[in-house]
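Hi V.,

Quick status before I head out on leave. The structure for the redesign project is tokenized and pasted below; the design run finished overnight.
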């Protein structure tokens, strides 16, 4: 997976994956009896073609062989997505991991799957975007549908709108995509507003909650709980696929949100609980954005792995000393001492009341007014 490397200075540096795996190991997560680590394989062209245009796959292969000849019309060789030799194989491996997870769910060989190297949610059918070449979340969803799953719920808690996955299933009533993100008025990709609700055949299955810049844990979790559980229950999915980009953290430079690792861990707990309650536990979780590679991504995704394996790591758990020493020796900085940020996670329940002066509440209400009536839900009350 470390071959997914645009450049040494690109924000999407694969060392975040190496540090996550090392931290999971030092925490003893990979030694748990119910957890199995599987090497990801390359997705085939036929598999990639289930969600991507054949011409696009051909373009990626061409740039992969000749990175000196970019294809900017396809988003390849741009500032966000620099071309490099082997980009097809590296991207297909990330995709293959999520496909393996979907197959394991279908074959009942796994109940929960985590691919923290995945979450490439900006890639569209025919174009690379936002550091994403092949959309592994969409591929996993399509594999589930092809395997007989009737409805899949996709939940995206990355700071950036999950536009690629949404666009691929825009007019497919079997897939509900819910994206909770910073508003497109202040952040890439500039989309994901409340009135983007899906195509003519799938009205209400694209759900967007666009919160304002500087939203912290309290507003973020209020927005999640005011929209996601209610729609998840109404939609009644058989499997949940989630994207856990951790770039909404206050110490991540690629968003304007103010979240903590504590809040991101809570999101994972909440999504796991939804899968248990609605899908008999069937859940595929991916990584995504996350550009603070020493302090945030490894802790956030280690929490995700721990939650998926059934025993969350307490926030007060000390970060293993050998891991901290390794990071210090490699980067010259000391990472956090504990697995949490000691944040206050209290948030106001939506049932407490709507405050029209609160910009987060206005965002929530905009989404509820657009979507809830389409599922027989009252936008004001549950």
């Amino acid at each position: 997976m470390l071959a997914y490397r645009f450049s040494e200075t690109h924000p999407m540096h694969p060392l975040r994956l190496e540090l996550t795996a090392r931290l999971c190991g030092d925490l003893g997560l990979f030694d748990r009896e119910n957890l199995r680590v599987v090497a990801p394989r390359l997705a085939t062209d036929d598999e990639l073609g289930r969600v991507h245009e054949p011409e696009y796959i051909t373009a990626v292969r061409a740039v992969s062989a000749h990175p000196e000849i970019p294809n900017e019309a396809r988003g390849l060789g741009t500032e966000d997505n620099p071309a490099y030799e082997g980009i097809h194989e590296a991207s297909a491996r990330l995709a293959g991991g999520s496909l393996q997870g979907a197959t394991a769910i279908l074959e009942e060989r796994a109940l929960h799957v985590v691919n923290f190297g995945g979450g490439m949610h900006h890639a569209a059918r025919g174009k690379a975007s936002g550091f994403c070449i092949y959309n592994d979340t969409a591929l996993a969803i399509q594999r589930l549908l092809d395997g007989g799953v009737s409805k899949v719920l996709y939940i995206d808690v990355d700071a950036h709108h999950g536009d690629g996955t949404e666009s691929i299933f825009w007019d497919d009533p079997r897939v509900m995509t819910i994206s909770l993100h910073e508003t497109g008025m202040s952040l890439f990709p500039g989309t994901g507003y409340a009135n983007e609700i899906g195509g003519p055949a799938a009205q209400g299955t694209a759900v967007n909650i666009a919160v304002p810049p500087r939203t912290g844990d309290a507003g973020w979790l209020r927005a999640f709980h005011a929209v996601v559980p209610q729609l998840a229950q109404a939609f009644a999915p058989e499997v949940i696929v989630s994207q856990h980009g951790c770039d909404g953290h206050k110490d991540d430079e690629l968003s304007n949100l103010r979240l903590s690792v504590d809040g991101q861990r809570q999101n994972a707990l909440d999504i796991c609980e939804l899968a248990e309650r609605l899908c008999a536990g069937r859940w595929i979780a991916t990584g995504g954005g996350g550009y603070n590679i020493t302090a945030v991504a490894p802790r956030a995704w280690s929490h995700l792995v721990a939650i998926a394996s059934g025993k969350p790591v307490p926030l007060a758990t000390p970060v293993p000393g050998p891991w901290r020493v390794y990071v210090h020796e490699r980067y010259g900085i000391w990472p956090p001492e504990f697995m949490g940020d000691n944040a206050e996670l209290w948030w106001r329940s939506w049932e407490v009341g709507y405050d029209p002066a609160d910009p987060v509440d206005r965002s929530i209400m905009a989404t509820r007014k657009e979507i809830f009536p389409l599922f027989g839900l009252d936008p004001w009350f549950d």
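Above is the designed sequence. Strands lie at 112-115, 152-156, 175-182, 206-211, 239-243, 283-286.

G. will cover questions while I'm gone.

Best,
W.
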